[in-house]
Amino acid sequence: MKRYGVLVISHGSRSREWVRLVDEAVEAVRLPEPMPVCSAFLEVVEGRLIQDGIDRLEAEGVTDLIAVPLFVSSGSTHMDEIAYALGVQEKPLLPTDLVPFRRRASVRLCAPLDDDPEAAGIVYEKLRPLSVSPDREIVILTGHGSDEDGFRERWKEGLHRLAGRLGGLGGFAAADYATLLPDTLGGKVRDWQRRRPDCAVLIAPLFLSEGYFTGQVIPRRLEGLGYRYNGKALLPHPLLSRWLERRIAAALAEDRTTLLRTGDCKHGDESQKGEADL
């Protein structure tokens, strides 16, 4: 008999406020059927790391884990090491200190936020107080980025698509993107100020929670330039909980469809029978 459980994986932080905001988003998740949900962290938060979360869920009888990474981009190198350590990916693309997690349950790993419409909606709501005349404003969506081949491209693709959604929501004159790694932010601002001196530049950070990057790194990279910025990250916002709910529901539906197609589940009242490594 299958028993599903949800493991929400975040990076982790020494900031209690950072952890609290993640926990509140996870606690606000409402699912159509009862199942245990556990919030775990890649690093730093002792006693609540990914292995701790797996152990806790398996102790509750979970046989099938739905792992939802609360990360903003598929370009994060952490996605690579998490997929490897969960056994979803045979080898990591980059060196990692993570070793395969101890587990009995099968795992279905979901995609991170990337350019999901919910992400665009949250960024827009956080940015909207800065906007005065959208048709005379340039928005630059700013994410962490990566210097690693392959990962850098994933960051750029996701940011490009999300910036397009953001521009459409706000009716801005233009919407672009920049990364901190490699550092393209200052250059993008200067470029747009040359091209459209009639427009104001608004900076929209794409980070899960406020902290070092939103409070220090971005303002330092923009020193001496004219722009509008409030440093508002994705959390807190109820749409993140709704996004988690949709990811979990989609994973459940995909898993059950796979069981039906493979013949492991022959009758509707037996929809929880069968087991597969996914």
Topology:
Blueprint: E1 4-10, H1 16-27, E2 37-41, H2 50-59, E3 64-69, H3 77-85, E4 106-109, H4 117-127, E5 137-145, H5 151-170, E6 174-181, H6 185-195, E7 200-205, H7 212-221, H8 238-262
Helix pairs in contact: 4-5, 4-8
Key features of this structure:
278 residues, alpha/beta, Rossmann fold, 2 domains, 8 helices, 39% helix, disordered C terminus
Radius of gyration: 20 Å
pLDDT averaged residue by residue? 92
* Main beta-sheet strand count, sense and barrel state: 4 strands, parallel
Q: How many separate structural domains?
A: 2
Distinct helical segment count: 8
Number of strands: 7
Order of helices and strands: EHEHEHEHEHEHEHH
Which shape, going by the Cα principal axes? elongated
Helix content bin? 25-40%
Structure, briefly:
With 278 residues, the chain is of the alpha/beta class. It is 39% helix and 16% strand.
How does this structure look, described?
This protein is an alpha/beta fold. The strands form two sheets. The protein has a four-stranded parallel beta sheet with strand order 2-1-3-4, sandwiched between helices. A three-stranded parallel beta sheet has the order 6-5-7. Strand 5 (137-145), helix 5 (151-170) and strand 6 form a beta-alpha-beta unit. It contains eight helices and seven strands. Helix content is 39%, strand content 16%. The chain is elongated, with a radius of gyration of 20 Å.
